[in-house]
Amino acid sequence: MKNKNNTIFLDPLTGIYNKAFFLEAGNKILQLASRNKVPLSLCIVDVDDLQVINEQYSPGIGNQILESIAQTIHNSCRESDLIAYVGEGKMGLLLYNISGINTQTMLDGLRKKIEHNTYKVNQKEVVVTVSIGACIMHGQMNTQTLSTIYKQAYLAVNVAKENGKNRVAVY
Amino acid sequence: MSSETKVIFQNEASGIYTKDFFFVTGKILLQLAKRNQVPLLVAVIDIDDFEAITSEFGSKTGEKLLELTTKLIDEQCRVSDLVAYMGEGKIGLVFYDITNADAKNTLEILREKVAKNTYLINNEERYMTVSIGGSIMQSRINAGAIEIVYEQSCMALETAQRKGKNCVVVY
Description:
heterodimer, A: 171 residues, alpha/beta, B: 171 residues, two-stranded antiparallel sheet
């Protein structure tokens, strides 16, 4: 993804798109979904206990884990999916024309994949999990902006966290 | 464009998206079109005799004319269409899911809109025209990158200019 012309769109830590590009390009995709009357899922993947990891090991280790998770997500998604680092240990995903059931299945698959990854830190194996929140929109969305839907996905992440973490919550 | 992010992705002179944004977002739209088996139209609009206008009336007038023309074109397009300034008086467009017949019609409407508009230059009403080249990526064909489709639309533009300008050619 990296080349000298598109670094303005990329997050320097994870190498995937940044939040600004996610919101701007995402609005275009939202308008497309509204015009074509297809479902659109906005998902937020939040690394569980990232602050604890940073304190226990170091922010450098935390960053490496974030980069690795970003790559796992990138490799698991389709080329047409929009994936970005949106800050504070969270990744945003925008999935065009995917049903609610398939979204749930896909996100659960992603959650398990990340859970089964292990990270070697100081010769110890560390398991990292994620909580995922998703907001699935159907029909006319032209009265919404991506920021509004983003907030709803964010609320879903909080529900996933409150229910024990390492799970998926969908609105 | 959303107010928070428009400055990052906006071309200052024209007020629309930058060339880099066009290619990065266009790539995603192309992947969406392939996956959803719909056609994608990439077009390039060139202000006829833009260099001559700038030489005769100065670069500030040229910039103003560019701004007005891009605004006119942007207003004719849907929110889901991608409109960007490509440099040297050229505007790039991406239309998702548009038939061959609609492609030519849509671009003709844009051409006519510009041709019928008058511009006040040195207290004199003047007309401007544009030449438009378009290339349709059909999903069933294994099309290459967005840059290749754009190049094809530039070739169509050259044909339009050779045909006498103020016309539309779609490959």
